[in-house]
Amino acid sequence: MQIIERIHEMRSWSETQRCQGRRLVLVPTMGFLHEGHLSLVCDARKRGDQVVVSIFVNPAQFAPQEDFAAYPRDFERDRQLLQKERVDVLFHPSVDEIYPEGYQTQIKVERLSVPLCGVVRPGHFRGVATVVAKLLNIVRPHVAVFGRKDYQQLQVIRRLVADLNYDIEIVGHPTVREADGLALSSRNVYLNAEGRKAALCLSRSLGLAESLARQGEKRGKAIVDAVQAEIGKEPLAKMEYVILCDPETLQEVDRIDQDAVLALAVSIGKARLIDNTVIKP
Ligand code: AMP
C-alpha cells in the first residue's frame, strides 16, 4: 500500500492509473477506522481495480465549539488495518495541503444542508461538501463509496455530484452495526460503559418505528411520538431531533405512503450520535 500525502503525487498516481484503463474507487474517511469503514473498503474493492482510502479530519466541518481537536486519531492503527484490506493507496494530506494560505472557496448545497443536523450544525455540510468536492478533484475516482449512516451527508454529496456534473458514481453503503444494534461510529469511543448501554435506545427506537409501520401505521406523528417516547425512557439520552422525512429532499413528511427516512440525533454525555432507517409503507 502506498501512502501519499501530497496532492500533486495523488493526481499523478491517478492519472497513470486512468491512462492504463483502471477503474478507481475512493472511500473518504476521517480515520480512527472501524468495521463500518472496512465494510466500505470491501464494497469499494468489488467496484473497481484500485482502491484509494483518504484519511483527513476536515477542520472545515467542525464548528469552533465542536470536537475537532479531540476527534480520535490513530494513524498507525489505521494504516495497518488498510494494509490488511489490501488498499492500494492511503491518501493522507495535511490540513495545509488541503487548505493552503489564501484558501477561500466553499461549496454550499443550499436546501439539503438546512434541516436535521444542519439546524444544530450550521456550516457543517458546507465543510463536508467543500472537502468532498476537493477530494473528488484530487483523486479523480470513477466511483466513491459513502455510508448511509450519515444519510444527510450522502444526500448532500449526491446533489453536489449531480449539480456540478462530476462524472462519478456515488454508492451508499448500508449501516454496519454492533451485534446489539449500535451503529458503528468513531465517536462511540466517547461512550463510557453506562453510556454504551444507553446508546442502544437509538437502534431500539428505530426498530420500534419499523415495526409500527409494518403493523400498518401510516401517520408520521404517531411514529415520531413513539420513537421520542422510547428515547425519553433513557435518562442519559438528550434528544436533538427525531424526524420522518422524504428520502431525497429531506423535507418532513406526515404520512408514510412511500418510503420515508426516519432520522435521529441523540447526545449521550459528550457523544453526539446519529442513526436512521428507511420506513416502508
Ligand atoms: P467518517 O470517518 O465518520 O467521516 O466516515 C467515513 C465514511 O464511513 C462515511 O461515508 C460514513 O458514512 C461511513 N460510515 C461511518 N460509520 C459507518 C457505519 N457504521 N456503517 C457504514 N458506514 C459508515
The unreliable regions are: none
* Beta strand count: 9
**CATH fold-level name of the largest domain:** Rossmann fold
Structural class: alpha/beta
Percent of residues in beta strands = 15-25%
Helical percentage: 25-40%
- CATH architectural name of the largest domain: 3-Layer(aba) Sandwich
User: What is the H level of CATH, i.e. the homologous superfamily of the largest domain?
Assistant: HUPs
Terminal Cα separation, in Å?
45 Å
Hetero groups bound? adenosine monophosphate
The pLDDT mean sits at 98
Main CATH class of the largest domain:
Alpha Beta
Rg over C-alpha atoms, rounded to the nearest angstrom: 19 Å
User: What best-fitting shape do the alpha-carbon axes yield?
Assistant: globular
Give the number of helices.
10
Helix and strand run:
EHEHEHEHHHEHEHHHEEE
**What summary fits the major beta sheet?**
6 strands, parallel
What is the total domain count? 2
Please state how the strands of the largest beta sheet are arranged side by side. 1-4-3-2-5-6
